[in-house]
Structure formats: C-alpha cells, structure tokens
Amino acid sequence: MKKKQLLNSQRRLKTGSVFLPFKLACVLFTFTIPAISEANASSFHKIILADGKVTGKVTDSNGEGIPGASIRVKGTATGTTTDVNGKFILNAPANAILVISSVGYETQEIAVNNRTDLSVVLATSSKELDQVIVIGYGTQRKLDVTGAVAQIKGDEISKQASTNPVSALQGKVAGVQITNSGAPGASPQIRIRGLGTVYGNPNPLYVVDGVWFDDISFLNPADIENISVLKDASAQSIYGIRAANGVVLISTKKGKSDQSSVTYNGFVGYQRVTNPVQMANGKEFATMISELANYNGAVPPAEYDPAKYGQGTDWTRQILRGAMINNHQITMTGGSEKSTYNFSLGYLNQQGLVQGNDFTRYTARLQNDFNLSKYLKVGYNLTGAANNSNDIDEGIFHQIYAAAPIVPVRYADGTYGDPSDYNLGDGANFNPQVTVDYFNQKAKKYRLTGNIFADVKFANHLPSIQVSAETSFRLKLLNMIRFMQLH
Of the four listed, 33, 145, 184, 297, which is most buried by Cβ atoms within 10 Å? Predict the structure, then answer.
C-alpha cells in the first residue's frame, strides 16, 4: 500500500529540482517505518486498530443498573447512554479510555485495554447529595428534596454574555424551554414543562429574595447567587395558583464577614444578522411580475420592465445594521462578625439591529445583614433600576421582507420613494425607511424593589428550628411618549 502511494505521489510531481528532495525524503521514510514497527510492534498495531464494539453495564453500589448514565470516549465526541437496565453498547478503540458519569454519582474513567465487556460500579457522590438547594419554604439538602427542582449557580450565569438572567438559563435546565426575541431589553419567553394554559398568562412566577415578580429584566445577572426552578405541581402548595406554570426562585448575592473585596465584571460585544433571507433584487422582481402578467394573458405594465432595474433596493441591508452591546458592573462586598454588606452598580447599553433602536439600563443594589444577637438577625435588600429605550415600529420586519425592491429609498430630488408610483397594491404599499425615520417612541421605566426580614433562632439546644418574618415592597413607574409625524 505504501509503495502504491509513493508511485502515485511521484507521478503527480513534475521533474526537476523539486523531485530529488522529495525522492530522498521518501527513501528515508520507507526505512524508518520497519524500524518503528519492529521496535514497537504492539503499540503500532494498537494505533491502526479499527474501533471495536464494547458492551457493558453500569450499576450502583447495590448492584442496581443506573439508567441514563453517560458513556463517552475521552477526548472525542463519541458516546452513548445506558438503557433502563444500565446496559450500553459503544464502538471504541481497544486502547480508549471511557468516561462514565451520572447525576448523583462520582465520575469514573475506565481503560478498555482490548476488553469487549465491561462492568462499572459508580459510587454515590456525597458532595452532590449534601448540596443546599433553595426551595419555597427555605433551604434543604438535595438528598431531602422530593419535588422537581433544578439549580444553577450564579457563577455559571455571570459567565454568559447575557443581559437578562433568564437568557443565561437557556440549555442548562431540563424541561425548560427559553426563546429569545433578540430585541434590546426584551425578556425571553420561558416555558417550564410545556405550555400550561392557552387562556391565561403562561409565564412562570419569579420570586427574587421573597418578592414576587412577573418579569425580572430589571435584574443584573451578575447580582445573582443562584437560581432554583420549581418544575412540578407541588410549588402550588406554597405560592398558590400563581405557581401553576412553575416558579423561578432567585437569591441575590450577600456580603461575607472579614472578606472585603471590589469586583468588576463586564463585556463588550457585537451583534449582527447571520444567514439573512435572500430576497429577489429589482430586476428579478420586475421579471416575475412581467411573467405573471403574460401568464394571465395581460400586457405587463411599463413600470415593470426588467431592463429598467438592476439590483434595486436591498431593504434588509438598508434597515438593519451591526449593533454594539456594553455591559459593566462594579461590586463592593465585605463585613464583620456583626454585619455584612453588598453594594453594586451596573450599566448596560444595547443597540438594536434596526436603525434607531437602543436600550439603556442603570442598576443599583444594596444589601445589609445585622447580627443583633446570637438569636436574632435582621437585614434588608434594595434593588433599583432605570431603563431608557428608543423603540421601533412592531411591523418593521414585515415591511422589510414585503417591500418591493424596485422602490428606491429616495428619488433623485431627495424625496422618499413612493410605492404608490409602482401600482404595488396594499400588500407592499410602504417604504420601510420612512417608517424608521418617522416612528418616534421613547420609554422610561423606573423600578424600586426590596424586602426587610428578621430571623429568630431558638435556644442552642434547638438549633434546627428557625422562624423568619419578612415584608416586601415594589414600586414601578413607566413613562412612554410616542410622536406621530405626518409625511
């Protein structure tokens, strides 16, 4: 096989000075291969050995099969999962290393070593089961939770270049579907275990430090300590009918005693439309209209002569743009044995993909805890947000894709291109540039939320009993101004 490859390579090369060095290299290559194969025959055969079928079973310490365990060939994307009995079948090289993992168990790495049948026992992960999870009534160990609860750490959320905390959950929680609209400052759509109702509000209930919300777009993702998603019907026993579509519990960050720090978190990004829809240009559009008229036995109108038009107007490029996004936050935390504090300031500016569309958000948050005695702890959380936005017409994207490419943005005299000059009918009787230039809607939103709490702990011989009293408030002010100009 090697000789055939050398001959084919030599036939493709031109004669001359290039041929001799290549021939010399080929001679050296043919002598080194036998030397390698004789000295390391076993390892060489392992390298060229094709993948083989490996079967096995994954069990726990009691011998019960673990369904849904992940089996992956280390360093590759090849993998599979176990069936309901914990069995699996996988194609893997004889010298491969398999990585076996499952929720609640320690991850193991097993060397195949030319074996075709494997038996793997996974040990229970005590760290995973002892993890504290925020639930409706307070906190519990993950081992003790009976409802369907998923938790995401704040560190994982802050790593995402997301402007909304809900967007950072996308792809991280099973059974939770999140759809982003892409509009600046817009809240994504979230559905927990499908659509719960077609008549009322299908959105889940958000609870931020004990305060109920329908929307958390005012919250800075970097201020979040953790997010817990209550996915089953048991959440209604705590929050009532408002929890019919699930509950998203959010705990914000708190200060730590004897650990003063100043932290900066931010990013700068660029957004643009990818894979835009390829629309007909001016000449193609006029040709289609003329062919349609001929097909119907009519004479094509003179204004649809394809020879008059070239590329025409590409409304997608005309209206859409590349957009910048800036997100910055600075946080100061610290405290002592008697009190802790957390103070943060945030700034977000996000441009929209449509000309003139942008969103600006300013956030401030202050949190304090005070240990008045070893039995009494009080504290408060305050979050303020101010949003400014320049909005766009909701029908602008329809106009972009429905406007005729034969209509110019402006005529030679500077006036706007008029669709009525081209007998387009009502379906395309608009100029998107006019809509963008004359639509003027500005919105300002101010929100102040907070809560005050007190935790009372009983005597030292009853350390597990704790009573909390809490009150919360929220203030929201929306100011929207829309100007309609005649043109």
Answer: 184
In order of 278, 378, 400, 416, 425, the CA distances from 285 in angstroms are 13, 70, 15, 20, 15
Who's near 410: CB < 8 A, 6+ residues apart? 416, 417, 433
Task: Give the torsion sign (CA, 182, 188, 194, 196).
Answer: negative
- Single pTM value for the model: 0.64
- Tokens, residue 269: 């990004």
Output the CA angle 455-459-463, nearest 5 degrees.
70
Instruction: Report residue 428 as tokens.
Output: 């395309």
The Cα 374–Cα 376 span in angstroms is 6
Question: Which residue positions in the chain have pLDDT lower than 70?
Answer: 1-50, 126-148, 196-200, 233-237, 459-474, 476, 483-487
Q: Which of 172, 194, 170, 193 is nearest to 182 (CA)?
A: 170
What's the sign of the alpha-carbon dihedral 41, 44, 48, 49?
positive
Give dist(CA 115, CA 53) in Å, integer: 9
Overall size of the chain counted in residues = 487
Q: What is the DSSP letter of 235?
A: G
Q: Give SS3 for 143.
A: helix
φ, ψ of residue 9 to 5 degrees: the values are -70, -40
Q: Report how far residue 263's alpha carbon sits from residue 333's, in angstroms, rounded to the nearest whole number.
A: 8
